[in-house]
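User: I'm writing a tutorial on reading structure tokens. Could you give me a worked example: one chain, its sequence, then its tokens, then a sentence or two explaining what the tokens reveal?
Assistant: Sure. Here is the example chain.
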Amino acid sequence: MFDFGFDDHEDLTDSGRLQELVESYEQSAGDAYLDSDMLEDIATFYFEHGRFDSALGAIDRILKTHPFSSDAWVRRGVLLNNLARHEEALHAYGRALELNPTDAETLINQAITFDTLDRPEEAVAAYEKALEIDGRNEDALFNFGVTLERRQRLPEAIVAFEQCVEVEREHPEAWYELGFCYDRLGENSRSVECYDRHIDIDPYSQDAWYNRGIVLNRMGSHGEAVKSYDMALAINEEFASAHYNRGNALANLGELQPAVNSYLRVIDIEGGDAATFYNVALAFEELGQLESAMTYFKRAVDVDDKYAEAWYGLGCCEDALGRSVDALTHFMRAIELNPRVPDFWYARADCEYNLGRVEEAIVSYQMLVRLDGGNREALLDYAETLFQAGRYQDALEAYRRVLKLEPDCAGAYVQQAKTLLAMGRTDDSLRSLKLAILIDPAQRAQVSAACPDLMRDNKIRRQLGL
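And here are its predicted structure tokens:
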């Protein structure tokens, strides 16, 4: 908005004559008599050349002799806005509206200035007045939508933008904002449709291609998302965010080496940040290139020492390479930074168990199942560790928790039977084994390994169908 709005005058269509007029005006230091049409032309010349202070001087000359010119007050407001003198601009628009209260364009300019000053309620009121006067004013509808969008009033913003494109079907900015609003509301398909309409009008809109890619990736259309990012990058090869999100989409497709290449391109452009280094590391880890993965996990924590997930990633690589002590150090650092992540505790517990630190592992498993009591595998590992420590009653309670979560878990019945047998409860152990085999006959092979002492009794073997 903020259109200065002077019409060209037939007697000054010659740019040379206009230049002469401006030079004469400047040489006279503003004292020469000039009529309002000449002053308007001079002001327009200054405005078009970005000389807003000079343009303001010419407009003020007009207002000295024509103080009731609403057009001059509007143009004074436009110039003051360009000079970031917004409160004075509002005063000028107010004077214009006193003289011409039904001018929709003045109300729109006033509303935009209210918005600039973070006075949204007054901006909304001004837009509503403008639309009462001219309900099909596309500038009012579009800018009203922008104000509503900024205030997170997205459904109302959508209504304004939809009305705008009804008035002007080829309004690219309105289609773009509609795409953004629908995106924010999670209406992904409609968002893509609106971005497509914007792109039909403006096919070189890198931001629209980029945003479209984000929505498609969220929808699970990772291949289409990559194509959308490719179009953004064809327009601007240095678009780092597009490279980054292209890498994410490729990673979702399992195309890990191309994903790494995209992330590395981000690093080339921007120097890299912790999140980018982390994503490169994850891709290398998935590729099985653990030393390369560790290099980038380390770069992530060099940039951000509090990046808990990167410390965890380092630990996972160290663990996979058989370096359990180093792995445990990294897992403990991750937990120090974020003690509420179950995966961190799970990795720590497993690592402690593998190092023979059974009591420490039990403490870690306890924290794990406290955070994630619905994790069957975690409960099974916890129970097995308790069994290894000779804490049979606690182990039995853990197995019962597993079977409460999943009553048909045959493996849990086998492990429970082993614990019952260790407690001297042979009959209960036998019942648990029978249930395991009833649920899954394939468990017969596990029974012999879990309870070898029972299997020496032929009578028991027959009862179990072995």
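What the tokens reveal: The chain has a mean pLDDT of 91. DSSP finds 28 helices and no strands in the chain.
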